[in-house]
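Sequence design from tokenized structure. All designs in this work follow the same two-part layout: the structure record, then the generated sequence. An example of the structure record is given first.
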């Protein structure tokens, strides 16, 4: 009989929003498309708020409320960057519902976003979801084209 006491669960990052899944290489911003911040995927949101894609701890909330960093329970660090050039909105269009240091669970609401305002006042409402410490591990990105918040696994880690 083999015991799996020490076998770690594989990381599963679920979609934080509903929308179209886009390869990171197609995000119209070189910081993301050239993977300067790490491996990942992007979602063009169709509706709704932004929810936690993993169980973990909030480690960063941008002062302009457009980005949230989460450390998953396995140590993987995930950045949700809501929109492109949204730092210039100075927090307008965003209401963050968590604080740095909060323990969060998959599916917990972390941000309300005014998609109409963001669409009119920023370059894009696309959400890059980046593993900022991806050099340490290997990840498998989904081949799905559409994301269902809380259900579609978009990134799997080893």
């Amino acid at each position: 009989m083999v015991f799996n006491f020490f076998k770690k669960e594989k990381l599963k990052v679920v979609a934080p929003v509903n929308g179209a899944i886009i390869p990171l290489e197609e995000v119209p911003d070189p910081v993301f498309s050239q993977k300067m911040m790490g491996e990942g995927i992007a979602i063009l949101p169709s509706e709704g708020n932004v929810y936690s894609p993993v169980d973990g701890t909030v480690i960063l909330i941008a002062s302009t409320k457009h980005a949230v960093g989460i450390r998953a329970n396995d140590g993987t660090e995930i950045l949700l960057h809501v929109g492109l050039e949204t730092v210039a909105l100075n927090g307008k269009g965003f209401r963050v519902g968590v604080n740095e240091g909060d323990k969060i669970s998959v599916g917990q609401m972390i941000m309300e976003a005014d998609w109409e305002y963001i669409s009119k006042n920023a370059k894009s409402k696309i959400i890059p979801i980046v593993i900022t410490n991806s050099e340490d591990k290997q990840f498998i990105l989904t081949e799905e084209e559409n994301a269902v918040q809380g259900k579609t696994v978009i990134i799997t880690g080893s």
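The domain at 12-157 is CATH 2.70.70.10 (Glucose Permease (Domain IIA)). We note this feature because it recurs in several other targets discussed in the main text.
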